[in-house]
């Protein structure tokens, strides 16, 4: 077991496909947390995250031979598989949080007052909960870049591989996603009433 | 750097992403010069901290151990049912051999079945063939039960009139419920059931068989099953009378 700990993901995958369940165990323990967290952050549902994690590794058992190490890391491959499973599952269960005004009501405001520092008035737990709900309320294409780049600390390049798009697309989506998050975490009305500089900043570069 | 240019880099600046030192310096200088962009930068920093807190909060989350067990179980089951290489599979000739063996077994079964169910050359059945014509004749003529048992050679002397044979009721030698098929009349008759104590000697002087009808309920008296749906119907029976007119035995006919 110790010797195999030093093996790369690709080598473990090769051993696993040859029938080595020890390699599967190592690979699973190495990568399951990231896949599970990604699925949980994308869906906001533990049962879905558990199902997706299981399906990802079952897929790896069945179709692991399609992984091409020259095209990216196994971690990115697993994220890509997990992404497909999550989106499919969310489509089926229609759990995608709509991006409309009603959803904003469910998300506690990070800027309860006209304070210019929206996060300062809330406790850390409240902040985390607010951010989590705000992320979940994003459209899928923005949510996935936030989850990958911000929460999973995946590079732009790997995110582009996972999503199958250009790095520039990842950058622009992330920029747009952060703007949406700020908008959700800050009620617009309060900013307008307080004459917030943030609103002015929107006009500043216009 | 103007505000529009600053907006393109503010996210990466707040996230601490690597960027050109010159660009970073210009952005920081713009923050000092523009209050609006300074607030914008602070919002981005707050958002970054919130996201980092969320990531840190979920960093310890892992899939339940049950998932690992399920995956491992599926993996072992999958490896257990991996089909054998083609070279190790049974050749097609094995299937043909099995098919031929099955057909052979079927043929043998049919032969054995027919052989076991073939008509038995029962001498009593042969005797019954003449029974309809001889019902009213004396027993010694009507039931030459074993007359045809042994074939008579052609060169053997055959008397014109056979000596009367002693009649031996079938019920004395066989169980009472042993039914006899009459192939000539398509009648099925039970063995003779003695109506009173008698022995073979009591019938030495002959007797008569008379066809009678009895209520079906009479079957019960002889220990025979009765169909209650046909309880009121009549049933045929042959009664064997001795020379003294005493009813000696009875058999039921269907």
- Chains forming the largest contact: A-B, 55 and 48 residues
Task: Please tell me what the overall shape of chain A is.
Answer: globular
> How would the global form of chain B be characterised?
rod-shaped
The end-to-end span of chain A amounts to 59 Å
Low-pLDDT stretches of chain B are: 129-164, 167-184
**H/E topology pattern of chain B:** HHHHHHHHEEEEHEE
Uncertain runs of chain A are 99-116, 188-206
Q: Report the structural category of chain B.
A: alpha+beta
Strand content of chain A: under 5%
Q: Strands of the largest sheet of chain B, in order across it? A: 3-6-5-4
- Give the DSSP E fraction of chain B (strand runs of 2 or more residues): 5-15%
Number of strands of chain B: 6
DSSP helical segment count of chain A: 12
Computed Rg of chain A: 20 Å
Number of helices of chain B: 9
Q: Rg of chain B from C-alpha positions?
A: 53 Å
- Mean of all residue-level pLDDT scores of chain A: 78
Percent helix of chain B, as a range, is: 40-55%
The tally of beta strands of chain A, per DSSP, is 0
Polypeptide structure, described:
The complex is a heterodimer of chains A (206) and B (254). In chain A, helix 3 runs antiparallel to helix 4, helix 3 packs across helix 5 and helix 5 crosses helix 9. Chain A has 206 residues and is an all-alpha fold. In chain B, the strands form two sheets. In chain B, strands 3-6-5-4 form a four-stranded antiparallel β-sheet. In chain B, strands 1-2 form a two-stranded antiparallel ribbon. Chain B is built from nine helices and six strands. Helix content of chain B is 43%, strand content 13%. Chain B is α+β, with helices and mostly antiparallel strands and 254 residues long. At the A-B interface, helix 3, helix 4, helix 7, helix 8 and helix 10 of A face helix 1, helix 3 and helix 4 of B.
Observed structural traits:
heterodimer, A: mainly alpha, B: 254 residues, alpha+beta, four-stranded antiparallel beta sheet, 6 strands, rod-shaped
